[in-house]
Amino acid sequence: MEEMNQSQQHQNSAIKPIIPIRFIVKLGGAAITCKNEFEKINEEALETVSLQLRQAMMSGSSSGKSLGMDWSKRPGISETPSVDEDFRDQPVFDSGSFIVVHGAGSFGHFQASRSGVHKGGLDQPLVKAGFVATRISVTSLNLEIVRALARECIPSVGMSPFSCGWSTRERNIVSADLSMVTKAIDSGFIPVLHGDAVLDASLDCTILSGDVIIRHIAEQLKPEFVVFLTDVSGVYDSPPTEPNAVLLKEIAVREDGSWFVVKPKLEDMNRQVQITVASHDTTGGMVTKISEAASIAKLGIDVYIVRAGTNDSLRALSGEIRGNTPEDWLGTVIRFVK
């Protein structure tokens, strides 16, 4: 009965937007932050990603001048921000909508792992303090990403799962109200969500990863496709730092959730894809990413994993990879097969 109630809660938690969602994009923490430097954003990478998202948003339209929407004071800059009066004559673009979900990278993981937030136990002072510290860190990153998108004239609004009432039981989502997400989309905004510390009915608290968030949103809102922007070109048959690592260009997912490599044809078909996870990563790293991507692909939604800030990522965001994957495209496509 409890499982049935949870299922009904999932179905009722989302009100589909009137405006169709073209895609969901996951900004990988390692792609937009300097993961080995505490709470440091990769400014150049984030700027490039923001520009590409603007280009994808305006695909098929005359993008015109980029009018910044961040009118707040930036750290290290003394000038008072100015409001661009050209907004008065700015045309309204019928650009199609998308949703951004980002990882934490060098934000949040340190606080969560040192305090054990992902394991639960809010009765422990260290865990409770870590919960607060983790949320301070990940929401500060969320703000900076929203600001970067706003500077490219993307009308983005930050949304935290904890503040929206998302919660889990034994780390599985049991409550995830998407009504504010869909209302934001129908109002012409781009929602920007992130991995977050949330309350858990069994553990008291845990960490809800951005990859799990994407899977849930995809189940409920059915985008045309999903793009994972990472710091590598896709999924490899071994750690990509190894000289003989092979990029897996297409992975097929069966009805039962199992998957196999379509391209390239591997000589050793029993060879397992090797995954490395950073010791401080509390959300499962690439293991979670592939698992969630396979779950999304089972819905009939193509998933593209590609290096952020490249021409290949722009092609994926623009929808060019849908259908037959071009031979010269560097990335991994994960698709459902019957």
TrEMBL record:
<feature type="binding site">
    <location>
        <position position="289"/>
    </location>
    <ligand>
        <name>ATP</name>
    </ligand>
</feature>
<dbReference type="GO" id="GO:0016301">
    <property type="term" value="F:kinase activity"/>
</dbReference>
<dbReference type="InterPro" id="IPR036393">
    <property type="entry name" value="AceGlu_kinase-like_sf"/>
</dbReference>
<protein>
    <recommendedName>
        <fullName>Isopentenyl phosphate kinase</fullName>
        <ecNumber>2.7.4.26</ecNumber>
    </recommendedName>
</protein>
<keyword id="KW-0547">Nucleotide-binding</keyword>
<keyword id="KW-0808">Transferase</keyword>
<feature type="binding site">
    <location>
        <position position="285"/>
    </location>
    <ligand>
        <name>ATP</name>
    </ligand>
</feature>
<feature type="binding site">
    <location>
        <position position="104"/>
    </location>
    <ligand>
        <name>substrate</name>
    </ligand>
</feature>
<dbReference type="Pfam" id="PF00696">
    <property type="entry name" value="AA_kinase"/>
</dbReference>
<keyword id="KW-0414">Isoprene biosynthesis</keyword>
<keyword id="KW-0067">ATP-binding</keyword>
<feature type="binding site">
    <location>
        <position position="105"/>
    </location>
    <ligand>
        <name>ATP</name>
    </ligand>
</feature>
<feature type="binding site">
    <location>
        <position position="210"/>
    </location>
    <ligand>
        <name>substrate</name>
    </ligand>
</feature>
<feature type="binding site">
    <location>
        <position position="231"/>
    </location>
    <ligand>
        <name>ATP</name>
    </ligand>
</feature>
<feature type="binding site">
    <location>
        <position position="109"/>
    </location>
    <ligand>
        <name>substrate</name>
    </ligand>
</feature>
<dbReference type="InterPro" id="IPR001048">
    <property type="entry name" value="Asp/Glu/Uridylate_kinase"/>
</dbReference>
<keyword id="KW-0418">Kinase</keyword>
<dbReference type="GO" id="GO:0102043">
    <property type="term" value="F:isopentenyl phosphate kinase activity"/>
</dbReference>
<dbReference type="GO" id="GO:0005524">
    <property type="term" value="F:ATP binding"/>
</dbReference>
<feature type="site" description="Transition state stabilizer">
    <location>
        <position position="35"/>
    </location>
</feature>
<dbReference type="InterPro" id="IPR024192">
    <property type="entry name" value="Fosfomycin_R_FomA-type"/>
</dbReference>
<dbReference type="GO" id="GO:0008299">
    <property type="term" value="P:isoprenoid biosynthetic process"/>
</dbReference>
<feature type="domain" description="Aspartate/glutamate/uridylate kinase">
    <location>
        <begin position="98"/>
        <end position="306"/>
    </location>
</feature>
<comment type="similarity">
    <text>Belongs to the isopentenyl phosphate kinase family.</text>
</comment>
